[in-house]
Here is the input.
Amino acid sequence: MAPRLSKRAFGWLDRRFGLGAVLDRLLNDPVPERGGWWYTFGAALFVLFLLQALTGLFLLFYYEPTIERARESVLYIQQEALLGWAVRGFHYWNMVLLVALVGIHLLRTFVSAAYKAPRELTWVLGVLLLLLMVATAYTGVILRWDQAAYFDLVVGLRITELTPVVGPWLAELWRGGEVINPHSLLRTFAFHIFLFPLTLLAVALVHIGLVVLLGQYGSWINYEPDPSGAPLTEEQAASRRKLEEELLDPKSRKVNLPARTTFFWPFHVFKEGVVTFGFFLLDLLLVLWFAAPIEGPVDPATTEYAPASIWFFLFFDQALLLFAGTWLVPAANVVPLLMVLTLALWPWLDSGSEVRPSGRLASLAFMLALIGVIFTFSFMAASRIYNFEFINHP
Amino acid sequence: MKPVRRRTLLQAAIAAIAGLVTLLVGGPLLAFFADAWRRRQPRQWVKVCDLAELNSIEPTHFRVVFKLDHLQGGLEEVRGVYAILTDKGPLVFSNVCTHMHCSVRWLAWRQQITCPCHGGFYDRWGQLIGGPPPFSLPVYEMQVREGEVFIANAYVARNYL
Here is the structure.
């Protein structure tokens, strides 16, 4: 009897580009076992990003990126097209989860000190991915071309314009002119559907490639004696032997040997799948419960509409108030830029070999302060927006 | 002199070709993208209102429409302005807050112009009173012709940052 078709297909591919070796490297990869559930956010991000690209592609079949038709076409998707509310709802709520998950993923790797040598570049690319994710989400909001979208664009252009020296030229490039015009929406559209997500995907693949090359780090708990003291299972022992061999191989870039490892497939992929599925279910619940927002048509001369920042920029919106008058220039660009740079350069600011949180109190204090500021400022901005609504319509 | 090795020569040639192609493709694309830099909205005068519609107590809100023909035929740009009478005649100023460019509005109960975004406050003539904005609301170039108020798409003093 001839061998099964899948076996023959595998053999065919293996003879052509060594599929077996590729799969062995990717799937039979030894990864830290303990705390594995915490090391799943990156995978969830990747899958949710692909779903975002997929729903985005389908929205393109209806969306019209012109200032006359953009909001109308979004309303058509929302109200007329079969299951349009679900596709757009998923694209919206998945964006919310993606931005939140980037934050969670960053927080986890920060607490784990997974940015330490030789993984500095992985961290720097991660910070770049955070910026690209936020940029993609922000430009996506503008495509609705409703009142909220218009003023999100206005403020974004204003902040760009305040960049020292090059600001006005940059803003004019983005706007496609001296004032907001039809090209502004088209350019933002091109950024959202092509430039930002494609760059994001490319950087993400390098980011993931680095994780595979250097091996998953895990966190400090993986380098202490396992408290359970249970003997290694057969698979765990095999994965450990494989990792020990890799550590001796001069071609390998791996440096860490966790106390207990397991094979990536299927042991860790199962955990990643469960967590990803959890976020996917959360997506579906949000889609079913809350419609993606859309507001009235654009009126630049409005005396009624009170713009509110998109939720992930609320803290930034509040921070703008700390600097009044001409201090606006450092507030709007230089301070955020310095904060992002500090975050990106953290591997060099905390370059010691200590990985336990108790030995990295300065790092934890920095992150706690950052989170504290972000949440406090966001809350302050939300209450301020509520109060201005009251001032406008007493 | 050391002889140039064939390998070195070929590497230099490849780098030169790659650099040339990058310039030949990247240059025109960037220029194409930056076309906006060389297009300037032509100066134009549009009517705001009749002089009789204005008073010296409260600023009145108007919409004015400028053409964007320098980008594409038939496109228009809507701007909001406030106009008020002063001792020296009508004063027409922008409704765009000098802080984050949100649209300001006259609040009769406060007798002030406010910005809903970050709480900038201006008086009835658009002069900055308080809040985060760096400057007063910019004033439009204005002409009165036969009892009608016209503005140009230009500010008297460009007090934008």
